[in-house]
Amino acid sequence: MSSAERKAQLQDEKLGLESRRAENEAARRVKPGFECAAEQKTELQDEKLGLEYAAKQKTKLQDEKLCLECAATQKMELQDEKLCLECAATLKTELQDEKLGLECAATQKTELQDEKLGLECAAERKAELQDEKLGLELPRSCQS
Q1: Where is the stretch described as Disordered (predicted)?
Q2: 3-class state of residue 144 by DSSP
Q3: Residue 39 Rama label (left phi>0; alpha psi -120 to 50; beta)
Q4: pTM of full prediction above 0.85
C-alpha cells in the first residue's frame, strides 16, 4: 500500500471516529439516563475492583496470620526444648553430685577399713605386749 493510500485510509478512520463521537454525544443528549447508567456501571466496576483488591489483601493477611501462628508454635516448641535441656542439665548436675557423694562415701569406707585394720593391728600388738608382760611377771621357774 502506498503512503498516499495509507494516508487516505487513516483520514477515513479519523472521520469514522469523529462520526461515532458525534453520534455518542447526540445519544447522550437525547438519552441522559444512559449517561447516568454508564457512570453507575463505572462506579460498580471500580467497586468490584476494590472488593477484589480487598479480597486479595484479606487472603494475604490470612497467610501472614498462618505464618505468625506457625512461628508461635515453633517458638513454643523451642521453649519446650530449652526447658527440657535445662531439666537435663539439672539432672546431670544432680547425678554428678550423687557420684561425688558416692566417691566420697567410698573414700570414707576405705579410710574406716584402714582404721579398723589399724585398730586390729593395735589390738594384736597390745595382746602381744600383754603376753610379754605376763611372761615377764611369771616366776623364773615357769619361764623355761
Answers
A1: 1-26
A2: coil
A3: alpha
A4: no
